[in-house]
Design a protein that fits this description.
About 30% of the residues lie in helices and about 20% in strands. It is built from eight helices and eight strands. It starts with a strand and ends with a helix. Bound molecules: D-xylitol-5-phosphate and zinc ion (ZN). It catalyses: D-ribulose 5-phosphate = D-xylulose 5-phosphate.
């Protein structure tokens, strides 16, 4: 089963509540929420307060993607705000294993993301401790960038390490790149600009096909 996770980074923030409802009704499986701190990535988005304010707009899974330095400092805040999945970047925390355990101690799922420049090998030691691997197929920080083709090989590599783990791909996903990711073994696709720049329902179902 392929799941689609629209990234609200491409939503209209002036009516965020309505956007969450619209994207939920259009068939989103997860709501992908990009948190950026202007330090780990060269952009600033929003934090737990904003997430909390949209929590009651939908029952969908809140898939929180933390692009922040030392995410261990804020896990409780994101859990309290309503996160169901918390994904941290392998490069953002010195003690990756410890931070994973910290997240698991709350009742939420844990994902680990790797940037285009980070080899899959960096997470091989902890792969059995986590629920999801998030392969970044662009350098994190902005929506609307082009898909980096070698990400396909990384998806295959992760799938070879685990048959059952969730593999999410994030960045430059459209109906063409989605096909390649699914064939390579991904089962969750994040898409921001592709979905929000069109008819939400049509775009979500075109990714699923
Ligand atoms: C980038 C974010 C993505 C972004 C994807 O740092 O993690 O979730 O919103 O946007 P598109 O789908 O437009 O590449
Ligand atoms: Zn993301």
């Amino acid at each position: 089963m392929i799941k689609i996770a629209p990234s609200i980074l491409s939503a209209d923030f002036s009516k965020l509540g309505e956007e969450i409802i619209a994207i939920s009704n259009a068939g989103a499986d997860y709501i992908h929420i990009d948190v950026m701190d202007g330090n780990y990535v060269p952009n600033i988005s929003f934090g737990p307060l904003v997430i909390k304010s949209i929590r009651d707009k939908t029952d969908k899974i809140f898939d929180v993607h933390l692009m922040i330095d030392k995410p261990e400092r804020y896990i409780k805040e994101f859990v309290d705000a309503g996160a169901d999945i918390i994904t941290i970047h392998a490069e953002s925390t010195v003690h990756l294993h410890r931070t994973i355990q910290l997240i698991k101690n709350f009742d939420v799922k844990v994902g680990v993301s790797i940037n285009p420049g980070t080899p899959v090998n960096n997470i091989s030691q902890i792969i059995n401790d986590i629920d999801m691997v998030l392969i970044m197929s662009v350098n994190p920080g902005f929506g609307g960038q082009n898909f980096i083709e070698f990400s396909i090989d990384k998806i295959k590599e992760v799938r070879a390490l685990s048959k059952s783990i969730d593999i999410e791909v994030d960045g430059g996903i459209n109906n063409e790149t989605a096909k390649k990711c699914i064939t390579a073994g991904a089962n969750i696709l994040v898409a921001g600009s592709y979905i929000f720049n069109g008819d939400y329902e049509e775009r979500i179902s075109s990714l699923k096909d």
